[in-house]
């Protein structure tokens, strides 16, 4: 529960400040996953248009 509350708090702060300022592209996320020998969750990849 603490983790979910902290995540929600961070999201509210980010949104109240005008949204995200830095983002990562779908390709960068995939490359980062390869670098650490993991595969990003499909649900995370689906967030990209």
From TrEMBL:
The keyword Membrane does not apply. Keywords: Lyase. InterPro entries: Aldolase_II/adducin_N_sf (IPR036409). Its EC number is 4.1.2.19. One of its GO terms (molecular function) is rhamnulose-1-phosphate aldolase activity. The keyword Cytoplasm does not apply. It comes from the Bacteria. This is Rhamnulose-1-phosphate aldolase. It comes from Klebsiella variicola.
């Amino acid at each position: 529960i603490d983790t979910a509350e902290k995540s929600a708090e961070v999201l509210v702060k980010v949104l109240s400040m005008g949204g995200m300022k830095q983002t990562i592209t779908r390709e960068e996320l995939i490359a980062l996953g390869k670098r650490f020998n993991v595969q990003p969750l499909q649900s995370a990849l689906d967030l990209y248009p």
